[in-house]
Amino acid sequence: MTSRAAVAAEIDAIFHPGSIAVVGASANPETPGYDYVRSLQEFGYEGRIYPVNPKGGEILGLPVYASLGDIPGVVDYVISCIPNAYILDLVRDCAAAGVKALQLFTGRFSETGRADDAALEDRLRRTARAAGVRLIGPNCMGLLYPEFGISFRTDMSRKSGPIGFLSQSGNLLFELTHFGESRGLRFSKAISYGNALDLNECDFLEYFAEDAETRVIGAYIEGVRDGRAFIQTLGRASSRKPTVVLKGGRTDAGGRTAVSHTAALAGSAAVWEAAVRQSGALSVATVEELVDALIGCAYMRAPAGVHSGDRLSRPRLAMVGAGGGRSVLTADLCEELGLRVPPLPQDVEAKVAEKAPDLAGWVTNPVDQSILAGSGLGGAQVLEWLDESPAIDMLVGNVGEPWAFGRPNGEAIVRRVTERFIEVAAKTNKPFAVVLGPSDYADEERWRVVSEARERLVEAGVAVFPSVERAVRTLARLARKWSSRQD
Amino acid sequence: MTSRAAVAAEIDAIFHPGSIAVVGASANPETPGYDYVRSLQEFGYEGRIYPVNPKGGEILGLPVYASLGDIPGVVDYVISCIPNAYILDLVRDCAAAGVKALQLFTGRFSETGRADDAALEDRLRRTARAAGVRLIGPNCMGLLYPEFGISFRTDMSRKSGPIGFLSQSGNLLFELTHFGESRGLRFSKAISYGNALDLNECDFLEYFAEDAETRVIGAYIEGVRDGRAFIQTLGRASSRKPTVVLKGGRTDAGGRTAVSHTAALAGSAAVWEAAVRQSGALSVATVEELVDALIGCAYMRAPAGVHSGDRLSRPRLAMVGAGGGRSVLTADLCEELGLRVPPLPQDVEAKVAEKAPDLAGWVTNPVDQSILAGSGLGGAQVLEWLDESPAIDMLVGNVGEPWAFGRPNGEAIVRRVTERFIEVAAKTNKPFAVVLGPSDYADEERWRVVSEARERLVEAGVAVFPSVERAVRTLARLARKWSSRQD
């Protein structure tokens, strides 16, 4: 076994522990020592859970052990919530108990910027290495693996999905779940790894590249130990699976903040950006872009031409739905992003002329729903024609609920358009993005209609975006990636 | 009275009609001829409503007149929903009945691109001018004036607000309402004016600049008749009130789409952009940016320094709330947008050191909520100190509900943080943006908690943004405007 394969096997074992001890477990619901135990229970973890606390007693129906050594069975994995002062003893206890891996929620190491904390971190590393205990963290939330019943918080999604994610920030994983869950952003496995003292970004990236449950890889990274090794690993990963990287600490202020967060050394933004692009991974700059890129990679097809080695430098986009200013602005934004928005292709024009002669030569692309209104020709029909046309490379379908809700049967329109878009998604070979706005309505019924429509789309595996802007920005971003691939 | 003042008086009369006739009114709820009558009724318009249709009968409880001439009383304003073939007759009927203004939902004029339609439009203009009838449109939705009971759709917001809006697209007004309503995007008056055959963008802009009910002006424009006159008018308007302009048809594809929408001639994007900036107005490129800029202008204070003539070229921003990667990424984005994110100012640092000595020298700006957790020092308290510090120019408060919802008392945390931010907003003299994510939750209870928190903020007049990204982009955009003002 190569060294890389050996580490991947270690991480795979870490993701599949037969038993977990939570050291610093607590009956106080305000503490992480409670959260970890409760999360494992609520996510249905089937191994043994051992709360550890010198006070003893019972937590959430489980007996509490005074120390690791008191646990009667084998412990595969330990989660630490104790203060940093006790951490070296814990590592030694782990070694004595045959524990292979220790995850440290415990923080206050080098990230505080204080010399004694940094020195302690250094001793932690040396002690763990000498003891043969692998570390995740310190200063991190640890593992999320819904399929196996592992979570660090009760409110992460229990649904599994195609995305493997490594993050130096636990908070970022909450945000991805909260802002992406309703759009289908779901994890195969994810890991919050904080200061990366032992197992690091390369190890996790390598693991996700091989992991059969992971189809798309995402990463939030503040700093790396070895830039060259990281870029090589990133290149290998992104040659296997679409890989999206969000870098924190790109500026002086961001880098300073990263030091206080995970003690990461940020490095030059320009060098980083160039290297990531060179590696074939997608680089994004904000959480919104990250969510959108992951949704795009997970749920949109790459254009057919790319698979046969064709180039796709300025793809031709068609959009149907909404209208008026929205059509105009979409055309503008696409062109500004390097996508072409050609007039209706001749084959589609001919079909329009046959079905609705009155509109021939007037309807253009983007197809303005308000021009179609009352013509007997529906937007979804035109979208199907555009899908069949060889002169169009990518499709956007806009549910256009602001217009629909003004009609007497608005809810029925939203549902019908949604189902028609699902039909198009099922048969198209082109990248297809559906736009459905946020369900921010103060009115509960509208919230419900939009939420249900989104859920239908997500369950059908359709990529949904909360605005036309975000849909076309994502298509443009992925188009650049597709056009640079040579497979 | 100057000619400008005379036109403004005409528009003011149009916004305050004592009676309205809907020509082409219909009992069929699927038609605009029904929508207009119903909207006036539902919005509580107190003048007389006269449905007109040769078929006669009754619509929504109102007697239908066969023609304008059959109406017993004075008609101040006419809305046309009839086919374009009858439009010249209608203008003549208006003149005969003493009607001063005619709004044409009726379309299919020059926007179809057909010579006969364009010729008809030209005759419409000449006929109306000869008859002394002012036109709004054709090919438009017309007036929205909630306070006076006028709307073109039943589902526009009935709440009045500070924003006067002129739009060549009616659909854009639906979108603004649907995507901005829950954030407080509410209109004093708005007007969808389509092809701008008679009354045009300059007339409406001039009107809103003087209108006492309008505090902020927004515009969606695809093309203007007279570029020089428009820029002069825009300059006058934006010297009176913050003015935000979204231009459609900036590219070839967008311009082509604009022609099929409102027959507008788009002109050069670069020249436009430069001229708009020169005029002192804010230029935006997407509907999201438009919503955010209007919210920012309506609900954020300009920094105090600006009013005394100071320059504010690279304002210093502080953020509190959320944490981890979010803090790092916010610092990065701000710096990339030209905002500074300095470390905690010394005066704030000293207060932190006094209240929570353990965190001194570790907490930085953006203030990471996860570092504060358990310290007894709350984020809102630090925000108040930052507000008091002379070394900070603008503030962001992030409710951070993804973190809060993981706590046992998450809803109470969201409510408490919201109320604390409202307190800060009430006393700060600095631009202050609150971040509260979209209420896209599939879970109804969470939707309700976030919706209610947002409503509290909006009712308190606080500027709310659905993401940190959008908040800081808006602050950066407004900062550029503030720094270039010389008042």
Which structural class is indicated by helix and strand composition of chain A?
alpha/beta
| Strand-residue proportion of chain A | 5-15%
Radius of gyration of chain A over all CA atoms, rounded: 25 Å
Low-confidence stretches of chain A: 307-311
Assigned CATH superfamily of the largest domain in chain A: Succinyl-CoA synthetase domains
CATH fold type of the largest domain in chain A = Rossmann fold
Q: What overall form of chain A do the CA principal axes indicate?
A: elongated
Question: What is the chains' assembly state?
Answer: homodimer
Largest sheet of chain A: 6 strands, mixed
Name the CATH class of the largest domain in chain A.
Alpha Beta
- Total helix count of chain A? 19
Assigned CATH architecture of the largest domain in chain A:
3-Layer(aba) Sandwich
Distance between the termini of chain A: 29 Å
Q: Could you explain how this protein is built, in words?
A:
Two copies of one chain form a homodimer. The longest helix of chain A has 18 residues, at 410-427. In chain A, strands 8-10-9-11-12-13 form a six-stranded mixed beta sheet, with helices on both faces. A five-stranded parallel beta sheet of chain A has the order 2-1-5-6-7, with helices on both faces. A four-stranded parallel beta sheet of chain A has the order 14-15-16-17, sandwiched between helices. The two termini of chain A are 29 Å apart. Chain A has helices spanning 3-15, 32-42, 87-97, 115-131, 170-180, 201-210, 227-240, 252-262, 269-279, 287-299, 304-307, 325-336, 346-355, 369-372, 379-388, 401-404, 410-427, 444-459, 468-484, and strands at 19-23, 48-52, 58-59, 62-63, 77-80, 101-104, 134-136, 142-144, 163-167, 187-192, 216-221, 243-247, 282-284, 317-320, 394-398, 432-435, 463-465. The first copy, chain A, has 487 residues and is an alpha/beta fold. The radius of gyration of chain A is 25 Å and the shape is elongated. In chain A, helix 7 (227-240) links the parallel strand 11 and strand 12 (243-247). Chain A folds into two domains: 3-293, 3-Layer(aba) Sandwich (Rossmann fold); 302-484, Rossmann fold (3-Layer(aba) Sandwich), CATH 3.40.50. Chains A and B meet through helix 5, helix 8, helix 12, helix 16 and helix 18 of A and helix 5, helix 8, helix 12, helix 16 and helix 18 of B.
